[in-house]
Specification:
globular; TIM Barrel; binds pyridoxal-5'-phosphate; Lyase, Ornithine Decarboxylase, Chain A, domain 1; 3 domains; 492 residues
């Protein structure tokens, strides 16, 4: 090999190597850039707690333009675009979330029943009080939910559905709540029509009135177990005391023992304590009531409204319910009862978000120097639990999600009421600075349970428009109220 050749070869190789290393460097740089942008993108998702299954935001993302996205399988909804089209304030709900949650709940219970060898059957009864909107109830029923009612008017909706032949004959309805004469007549009427309807008796007057009822009945017990949830009242007005239930002796057609002690229970141990106590009572009741075969454990299943706080998952809760029920039945030497749950907000809350526009800002002269952001709606009117039970909401910008500079805010509703505000329990809500935004919309998550029926019209504000996002399309399901509509409700 000549030197020249070798030099030429070497030069060729060197330039080839240079080319390779240049290419490698470019690739590396691109990779770094990509991972940096990915990190940045993920950074914003992390910041706003989006894309996380554990806090029910798994279906949420941020568009490259910094706008809130909600996914439904391979469909996606740009919330900012929707609001630009339909205006604010608005409630947007996603029936697919209801379907997924009901399906998942039923499948998970059945799966643990199978793996543990639990011998009772499971039934989910959707408590209509959580959200009676037709568009919320139907997807739950379509996934196999039975129903639970709390009033004559809720049962009237069931009657409507029966008359329209909407139900599979297997559906069962549990009737809770105080039994007015109208309610009992409707229960009797629907039973006569062939519906499996089970009134849950809460006191001696109801027991007497229903003594000739031909179908199965249940009794509600107020278990004397202290729990850590929203309802932790020292004295409960619901159901019989434990000693009263035992004193009833033989109850005609008794099939169900029911309790619902609290909502938003924070610890699985609370569920288990209640369950064990209820099973002890169940065992004693069965001695005189051999037809008793079902334990209805009500609800209390929590929603991670506050996404920074750790909460149990539905799966671990269900697993422990089934395992503990089995163990306790074995200790007590009784047959495994059929189990019912009436989880309401667990299913419905994550299916809806409420959107407002921030219409003005001013300084709050508190220690942290928060800014009041006024919204074009009302907490007292649209999200009444903010006021009633100091509900926490997860607040996320609908646009400008990539803004780096955030300010500490408190939110104010548009009524004149000094209680019409959301201060995240006196802390703050981080949001983009208004000076950096052309306009700013915000979304409050998990507003699908209870808020619609508790809603009101303080200062005669109109209720938000209600939009349904399903199968890739957005539809108006309740129009925005006009001044005439609102006036009419008050006799004008
Ligand atoms: C009897 C009964 N079952 C179920 C529920 C639903 O409870 P949650 O909101 O905890 O799901 C309630 C709520 O008040 C209730 O009273």
């Amino acid at each position: 090999m000549s030197g020249g050749q070798s030099a030429a070869h070497a030069t060729h190789r060197t330039s080839e190597m240079n080319a390779i290393s240049l290419e490698e460097t470019i690739q590396k740089n691109n990779k770094r850039k990509k991972s940096r942008t990915k990190k940045k993108k993920n950074g914003y998702k992390k910041l706003w707690l989006l894309g996380r299954e554990d806090v029910n935001t798994g279906h949420c993302d941020i568009s490259p333009e910094g706008e809130l996205i909600v996914r439904e399988g391979n469909f996606q909804y740009n919330i900012h675009d929707i609001i630009k089209k339909y205006g604010s304030p608005a409630k947007i709900f996603f029936p697919s979330i209801i379907s997924n949650r009901v399906r998942d709940l039923i499948e998970t219970f059945n799966a643990y029943i199978k793996v543990t060898g639990y011998r009772g059957r499971f039934a989910y009864h959707y408590p209509m009080k959580a959200n009676q909107n037709r568009e919320f109830v139907l997807p739950a029923v379509a996934e196999g939910a039975n129903l639970e009612t709390s009033s004559a008017n809720e049962l009237f909706l069931v009657k409507r559905m029966i008359e329209q032949e909407k139900f599979n004959t297997r559906i069962r309805v549990i009737c809770n709540g105080p039994k007015t004469e109208r309610y009992i007549e409707l229960i009797e009427e629907l039973r006569a029509k062939g519906l499996s309807v089970i009134p849950i008796v809460e006191n001696a007057t109801e027991l007497e009135r229903l003594s000739k009822f031909k179908g199965e009945i249940g009794v509600r017990v107020d278990l004397s177990v202290k729990t850590n949830g929203h309802w932790d009242k020292q004295f409960s007005q619901f159901g019989f005391a434990e000693h009263e239930i035992l004193a009833l002796g033989k109850v005609r057609n008794l099939a169900v023992l029911h309790y619902h002690i609290s909502s938003q229970m924070q610890h699985i141990t609370d569920f288990i304590q209640l369950l064990k106590r209820a099973l002890e009572l169940y065992a004693k009741l069965r001695e005189k009531n051999p037809g008793l075969d079902t334990l209805n454990i009500g609800s209390g299943a929590s929603v991670p409204y506050d996404k920074r706080k750790r909460l149990y998952s539905g799966k671990s809760l269900i697993s422990q319910i089934i395992r503990s029920a089995k163990k306790q039945c074995e200790t007590l030497g009784i047959r495994h009862p059929n189990l019912i749950v009436e989880w309401g907000q667990y299913v419905m809350a994550p299916a809806q978000m409420t959107i407002y526009k921030v219409i003005s800002e001013k300084q709050a002269y508190n220690k942290g120097g928060n800014h009041w952001y006024t919204i074009d709606g009302s907490f007292i009117n649209d999200l009444t639990d903010t006021w009633a039970i100091k509900q926490k909401w997860h607040v996320v910008p609908v646009n400008h999600l990539h803004n780096r500079k955030l300010t500490h805010t408190w939110l104010v509703g548009s009524t004149c009421d000094s209680d019409d505000r959301y201060t995240a329990g006196g802390s703050y809500i981080p949001l983009p600075r208004l000076e950096d935004c052309d306009e700013l919309f915000i979304a409050l998550f998990d507003t699908g349970a209870y808020q619609d029926t508790l809603a009101s019209h303080h200062c005669l504000l109109s209720a938000p428009i209600k939009l349904m996002a399903a199968n890739g399309e957005v539809k108006v399901v309740r129009k925005r109220e006009t001044p005439e509509d609102v006036g009419k409700q008050f006799g004008w």
